[in-house]
Design a protein that fits this description.
Mean pLDDT: 85
Largest sheet: 4 strands, antiparallel
CATH class of the largest domain: Alpha Beta
Number of strands: 4
Radius of gyration: 29 Å
Order of helices and strands: HHEEEHHHHE
Low-confidence stretches: 54-60
Number of helices: 6
Number of domains: 2
Strand content: 5-15%
Distance between the termini: 85 Å
CATH architecture of the largest domain: 2-Layer Sandwich
CATH topology of the largest domain: Tetrahydropterin Synthase, Chain A
């Protein structure tokens, strides 16, 4: 009986050894294949396309739209919801600045939300779009170290009561 059990375990050990060797050969072959037929790496980020609704002159520039559509609330009681979509031109050839823009998206969203939270809907309605843009531009530029935003555009600016 002991010979039969030891023979069984010897056979199991041989099968496991064969499976292990096959796995090692498969991994080594895949590595060699990958090194020989390696393709170039994809880019770390994709530069967004400008929205189709913008004018011809703006379509020639690359627009940063990574902030997306933002829902903020005003300082009113009860608060009024503000929907805003911000875009601005930038140079996509400036890799470090482009990376900084993408890294600062949460900060941009926070700065814009805080701007609206500090004001009432009545105050905001009395202000011109240019003064709102200037204030938001100043807050966003305060977050940047490798460059700055020159011009800011609103794709949307709506108050929902």
């Amino acid at each position: 009986m002991a010979d039969r059990a030891s023979g069984f375990w010897a056979m199991v050990n041989r099968i496991l050894l064969i499976v292990l060797l096959a796995l090692i050969l498969f991994l080594a072959g895949g590595t060699v294949y990958g090194l020989i037929f390696r393709k170039s790496k994809p880019p770390l980020y994709k530069i967004p396309e400008p929205p189709a609704s913008q004018s011809q002159t703006m379509q020639r520039e690359t627009m940063f739209t990574g902030i997306g559509r933002l829902r903020a609330v005003t300082g009113d009681a009860p608060p009024v919801t503000v929907i805003i979509s911000v875009a601005f031109p930038y140079d996509p050839e400036d890799g470090p600045f482009t990376e900084e823009l993408y890294a600062k998206i949460p900060g941009f969203r926070m700065a814009i939300s805080e701007y609206f939270a500090d004001r009432t809907a009545a105050e905001l309605r009395e202000m011109s779009d240019d003064s709102i843009k200037t204030a938001i531009l100043k807050g966003c530029n305060a977050l940047l170290r490798l460059g700055f935003i020159e011009t800011l555009y609103f794709n949307d600016l709506m108050f929902i009561e």
